[in-house]
Amino acid sequence: MAVVNLIEEDIIKIPLEAKTKPDVIKELVDVLKKAGKIEDAESVFRAVMLRENMGSTGLEKGIAVPHAKTHKVNNLVLAIGISPEGVDFDSLDGEPSKLFFLLIATPQQAGPHIEALSEIARLTRSSNFCKLLLNAKTPKEIVDIFSAQ
After folding, report:
1. Across the strands, what pairs with 69?
2. Using one digit for the tens of pLDDT, what is the confidence trace for 93-120?
3. What is the CATH number of domain 3-147?
4. Which residue in 27, 64, 102, 139 has a CA-CA distance of 20 to 30 Å to 88?
5. Exposed/middle/buried for 20, CB within 10 Å: 0-12, 13-18, 19+?
6. What is the pTM of this model?
């Protein structure tokens, strides 16, 4: 499944209000709950934090991809958040993360989960793509940016 197929305006939060790693994750999980993508937000939050405690999903160049597998979802789901100021996410390069892609899959979806992580990594290698996302002011702009890829 292509990441672009997961992207809808209701799973995008601009700007994120959170200032800490746990709060970013909670805010993005809440976005999924509000969008009707998950029911048990607390269990999903705990699954993501458990995975995060095994090793930070803060990558480089302002990108973080918190993710987890849990039986609390039926399908692969994604939430996107933008924090123009950045949040300390224990990233590999020590820089604040600004682009967040929260990915939740069922334990049986290892293949699609890895494919989605790979696609996010591929897309975010483009500094121009990341700049477009960071400059977006509305969820619709984010959807349009992904649709153009």
Report:
1. 105
2. 999 999 999 999 988 877 777 888 888 8
3. 3.40.930.10
4. 139
5. exposed
6. 0.94
